Amino acid sequence: MENSVGKVKTEYLKLDKTITLESGKTLNKVQIAYETYGKLNENKDNAILICHALTGDAHAAGYHSEDDRKQGWWDTMIGPNKAFDTNKYFVICSNVLGGCMGTTGPNSINPDTNLPFGHNFPVVTVEDMVKVEKELIDYLGVKKVITVGGSMGGMQAIEWSISYPEYVKSVIIIAAAARLSAQGIAFNAVGRNAILTDPDFNNGDYYGGKHPENGLSIARMIGHITYLSEQAMHNKFGRNFKEDKPNFDFGVDFQVESYLDYQGRVFVDRFDANSYLYVTKAVDYYDPIEKYGSLENAFDKTNANFLVISFTTDWLFSTEQAKEIVNALIQKNKKVSFIELDSPCGHDAFLIEWEKQTTIIKSFLSEVN
Amino acid sequence: MLGRTLNYRQITKLVKEGSKILDLGCGDGYLFKKLVDEKKVTGVGIEIDENAVIKTMERGLSVIQADLDKGLSQFGNKTFDYTILNRTLQSTDKPDYVLEEMLRVGKKAIVSFPNFGYWKVRFYLLFKGKMPKSRALPYEWYNTPNIHLNTVEDFFDYCKKNEINIIDCIYLAKKKARKKVIKPFANFFSEEAIFVISK
Asked: Quick one: A213 and A159 in the same domain?
């Protein structure tokens, strides 16, 4: 395949040390699922850490087997001569703490009990996710890193510059904010409630039996509503019926219903309901403004160059929120570029509009490195 | 308009080496890049047009997409050695507000504009009785972005009224830049003017 990183494999790192979380609780033997593309240079300073969004995974580029040629979630952006050029950079992507794609999360086996954590898994924060990513970076021998992320990944990219300013050369923040809006928290809360009230939820200890699939699929449907703009929904589905005419019942009637129904159904096959609770909660909690008094204070120690990208129709992480980051960096005399890209795709634009992003990111990276 | 070359050369001359600049309405970043290359400046550009922002980024420059008419509240007082507004004043919604903001965030401001007092412009209106068009003002009245045109004389008046210091003024006409010209002559013979001001 042209410009592909080719066949790749998810690797697993098991940490020996105990990780102390922001809440004060601890986790032993944390496992991190990750993939890398390209080569680390001699100075060990050409690394790019790609931080995934809410339900992403470590498989960001390439494919896993010749039979399954399904590409990684950001394959349009990562590869030889692509935005994140694997001929030049050592690109890393890992699954977040609390996730369910190989990194320790609520569906992992608790080493103390030999049973899945379930509701005994401690609440994790974006800061904790970054702390675990730092362990991976150290293990790989990386000395300097460029952190990149869209949506929740953007929050991690920001947090890297706050927690580990001496490691971070540049930060690329896409369709993200320094904190989620009340409206965003509200949508997450409804999603969590759908899971929590599912009769199969069983207080999070459902691993031996039926999973709360209804709750999780409803949560995913709500999520998908927030990822699209009104315009995108109109363009994609309009008011069209699935079968050209109404059925006069309460089944899946409209095309937009059919889309949400499909997204909900496929999601339960790949994602764990508990992880959805933990990861959305981490996003809701993230607030460096509250933590440091102001965003300016939070950015006090960073010397990184920043690139901030927002999209016109993204209302989940709006341009106004992106500007909040940009303005704080300007106030602190940090180097920052900002662009609002015109796109009808809503929040999803960061995964779709790869062509414009490629031009911008390539220019930015060639300047700063 | 007069070629870019003369205007850019004059502005480049005005900027001290190693300065920190804010280039307002930086367009494709050509002038900003010239200043970086020739005067080792640092700083940031501001531009509203998405494609122009991308072009500026492609030159490897820091640029922020924003609307000048909404002010520069993100920047602290006297953050920059120079704020530059090149050939853009006449197309802003609120030139007075933009100038105020430039003088607030910059120690010095460099402003250039097409001179509506230029003799050819005057004669055009006088003899043709139509809205003047020229190299500097190529648009029709109904599609021009130049909604706040002014003359050299107007700019002097504005500075006087608002207690703005004029540090330097350069008049451009016929591929030449002149400095020491008395006001009425400058207003009559120059096609474009560049002012360095402070407050």
From this structure: no
